[in-house]
Design a protein that fits this description.
2 copies of one chain form a homodimer. The first copy, chain A, has 560 residues and is α/β, with parallel strands linked by helices. Chain A has helices at 7-13, 44-50, 88-102, 115-120, 128-131, 153-165, 177-192, 221-242, 258-267, 275-280, 285-301, 315-318, 320-335, 337-342, 346-356, 359-367, 370-378, 393-410, 427-430, 436-454, 508-522, 538-541, 546-551, and strands at 30-37, 58-64, 75-81, 107-111, 123-125, 145-146, 170-175, 198-203, 246-251, 271-272, 307-312, 420-425, 460-465, 475-480, 485-490, 493-498.
């Protein structure tokens, strides 16, 4: 290897992730046991109508017995779809090692640049030599990822052509909810077209919002939240040492607040905002601001002009009045697109829009900082929609909280100081070297994908279960992709999709936060998780996320 | 301990840093050997005149032999001055363990909130029980830090009163260049006043700019740069995986670019800007922008619309034309303060200033983005000076590079894309749990401070040397504070100070960067250092910075 590698990376390249017992041995003594027929999350009839060939398949559990009868060489393709997540490379090495354990002649092809590589056939054969420098590393740089969809008739036909050309026994699609929805479509299409390639999905996303229905966690969430928690813990310690700044920390994760919740639980930051809670309480933006401002005020009264507030990236979109506003804006902008575009001044656009908005939305709009109003009316996406994703939630929150505190100050209701530092953590964690947990989890997922292919089980998502136990004890299951589906509105059309798992406000992770946060708000009860450790005892280097522990009824607080 | 601690922190609380052999055993078999009389870095006569009692003292080396004859109980005070740096708590535990090893009745007092605690006498007795939860932890939260100076006659008198009231045998001042300059003043003052308290300085700053003259490194630099390098490495991997963004990363460190240099060396980021080089080459802002834009262009031509650029926080202040401009602005603003203040419009101020500036400075001013011009003319500090430190160097650089690329695009000279993500790392690393290196280094520094006090050696900086060897082999020396001094202009007055150590463009760390960077600019030759490891072999968990290794003539590249 000509590339210079760090000492830690070199050690990781030689690391052998612990494999679930059931996944060892080339599948010679295991078999998939079929459970009951499955259904769908919701909208059962419509999901069945959309997936007539694959709907209702039984859940699968890999158990001892039987064994792979036909241990022939396998040809398998793999594609990394969507944003990076720690462990992607280990899915691939796990897949490779497993198909090689089945038969030394097995071959693995990586499609380059995500789904696009699958359409164009652009691929790379992945050999032991090619893979050696990527074992247990972060990033998707081995074959690259991409955000193309796999939906249209042309794409499906191109995908078929590629699989047939390479005579693939299996195609492994590594991705989030959308990519796994696409995997279900491909699986259905292949059966319909008589293509024999088995399609398997692997749950990937640092956002943690692809889970439930038998899938315990998406890979990458563990590592990414550990990186963010390291940094947040360091910042909490800095805040408590300098006693000078409020740190507002935005965390990646637009659609769900799992990352914020996990990091809040690990660090006991003074405030952790959860989008789903805001939505459920039907809180207004002003109420969210007031909530934060009051904690700033109470801490100042206790002599603490500092603190740490965690803000999920997608917070703004969870605020009901903002959702309604965005909906109305998009409708108005579409209906009167031509006239609207003819208005070149922001003030004219503002006037026009205000006349058209409902009373509530007009009020919500006027409460936004002018900068944000401008952004919404002047910059629109390719479909002509307002770019809500561009709104910098945390900068806006800081702006409004600062305003509110200034108001209190002027009224003599606030005698402290508010100096803010803001942070955004996202890119820092997506390509970290996978934690021992994620390294083992993804290596197992790769093996499990190989098992599904070897046993000819198409249309399943790889589900490694009992993840709170040590890896040796993990279970290996197959969850029918259709069983995870429901109908949702996409671009105005009811569409069968695998839904995003949101934070449940009645779930244990959130309840843990809710039960303890009033103390964290005022006391400095910070916990400092520190950097991810790859060596040392399991409680330091191998425990899964608090979210996972709590969801499995375990107490994540380390023994005193 | 009622506080909840993470598993890693619990393990670190029980960690016993490796101590240099020479510092073990309660100083019963060691003694300080005096070297030659010392002088000063520059301006020898004026330093001698300012420090008649302490100037010229010999350097000290702790060597075997002799041994502490008078092993009586010691009373010692410690103060943490300035910004946090990883290892501060270990200086204190090292000091405590060492004075207890001298005599079980020894007592340690921590002054609260930095030098202010020393004036007011506000302190806390630090016992084994108090210290137990702080061993090997980050932060300064045990006793707090502070940025007060220790200079005026009143402050010195108050400091004397406190030391006398507590009958202190020693006072340990932990801080950067300014704080150690203050330590020299206190030492001189105490001798002059017949106060018997020994004053010892400890070199602290994550910026790495307090070194040379026998001091090999300031503590905290190792840990902080390892945290930043972890993140930068992760971002490099993300950039190479997504192939979509240029990441501009600003790193803390206003006065010197050691942090940027170390992180550049560790990660091989595509671009690492070094303020000292910019200054030496007398580069203009436009030249710096052009340099970056050309690399962006060359990478785009190679199909790489992504990259990573490291920017030292203080870059702008190193650009000679900007320095001159700032100087002129401050002069103008002082001379015509009243009239200037009467101009409330930015455009009026701009017009006025432009009339008064030299031709070169007027040009430099007009090249700044309007936002920065406004900031300079509208916001001034308590002394009426422009707030150059508020200029967001990296945002400005991004703005100007983006402009330049846009220009190239319009001319058909750039066919790529430039999408930027920016980052600022500083607070993330200042309070990290000290690396094994920093934990051992600071623990040794604490012991060495105790030795200086026990042997009655005042006015010295603790200098633990041979830091590239394993800790057991480190040397312990005392460097006379006055020997590190020179005269510099402070607030318009020539003042004896310990200067800041800048990056030397003829030093090995910079030369290493200079020799290798043209490759890093175009190739993706990234190195991914990963998270700080506290366990595992020394090459993973114990090596010092590349800067230190290179400065000591060692090859930091890990063997292939």
């Amino acid at each position: 290897m000509s590339r210079e590698v760090s000492a830690l990376e070199r050690a990781r390249l030689g690391h052998r992730p612990e494999l679930p017992d059931i996944l060892t041995g080339g599948f010679r003594n295991v078999t998939f046991e079929e459970g009951d027929a499955t259904t769908a999350v919701r909208d059962v009839d419509r999901i069945e109508a959309s997936f007539p060939k694959t709907f209702g398949r039984p859940g699968l559990d890999l158990v001892e017995g039987g064994g792979l009868q036909d241990a022939r060489a396998l040809s398998v393709g793999v594609v990394l779809s969507g944003g990076q997540a720690p462990g992607g490379h280990n899915v691939i090495t796990g897949l490779f090692d497993a198909i090689r354990a089945v038969h030394a002649g097995s071959r693995l092809f990586g499609f380059l640049g995500g789904p696009r590589g699958l359409f164009t056939g652009d691929h790379r054969q992945l050999t032991a030599e090619v893979l050696a420098p990527y074992r247990n590393t972060g990033g998707f740089d081995l074959i690259g990822g991409g955000r193309d969809k796999l939906e249209s008739a042309e794409q499906l036909a191109a995908c078929r052509a590629t699989c047939e050309k390479l005579s693939l026994d299996g195609l492994v699609i590594v991705g989030g909810d959308d990519s796994n929805t696409n995997a279900a479509t491909v699986a259905e299409y292949f059966i319909d077209q008589g293509v024999e390639t088995v399609v398997a999905g692997v749950p990937k996303t640092i956002d943690g919002d692809l889970k439930e229905n038998g899938v315990e966690a998406s890979f990458g969430f563990d590592t990414a939240t550990k990186v963010y928690s390291e940094l947040i813990g360091n910042i909490c310690r800095d805040a408590a040492s300098a006693r000078k700044y409020w740190h507002f920390i935005k965390l990646m994760g637009r659609n769900a607040s799992h990352v914020a919740l996990e990091c809040g639980l690990r660090t006991h930051a003074n405030i952790t905002l959860i989008g789903e809670e805001v939505q459920e309480r039907r809180a207004t933006l002003d109420q969210v601001v007031e909530h934060v401002a009051l904690i700033v005020k109470r801490r100042a009264e206790a002599g603490k002009n500092y603190g740490v507030c965690i803000v999920p990236e997608g917070l703004i979109e969870f605020i009901p009045e903002i959702r309604v506003l965005i909906g109305e804006l998009n409708r108005i902008l579409h209906e009167d697109a031509k006239y609207f575009e003819s208005l070149s001044l922001f003030s004219d656009r503002q006037e026009f829009v205000n006349r058209k908005l409902s009373r509530d939305s007009s009020y919500a709009f006027s409460c936004l900082p002018v900068r944000i109003q401008q952004q919404l009316l002047l910059e629109r996406d390719a479909h002509g929609n307002v770019q809500v994703s561009r709104i910098d939630t945390e900068a806006m929150l800081v702006e409004k909280v600062t305003e509110r505190i200034g108001e209190m100050q002027a009224r003599g209701e606030f005698a402290g100081r508010l100096q803010v530092q803001d942070h955004f953590f996202g890119y820092e964690g997506r390509c970290a070297a996978p934690s021992n947990f994620d390294a083992a989890y993804t290596y197992a997922l790769g093996h499990l994908a190989a098992a599904l292919i070897a046993f000819g089980k198409t249309g399943y998502m790889c589900a490694v279960q009992k993840l709170v136990a040590p890896p040796g004890e993990w279970h290996a299951a197959g969850v029918p992709l259709t069983s995870m589906m429901q109908i949702e509105d996409r671009k105005g059309r009811p569409t069968p999709v695998i839904g995003k798992a949101l934070v449940h406000t009645e779930g244990r992770p959130f309840l843990e936060l809710a039960a303890r946060r009033s103390r964290w708000e005022i006391e400095d009860d910070f916990v400092f998780p520190g950097a991810i450790q790859y060596f040392g005892p399991r409680e330091i280097s191998g425990l899964p996320t608090m979210t996972l522990l709590l969801e499995h009824g375990q107490d994540p607080a380390p023994a005193p």
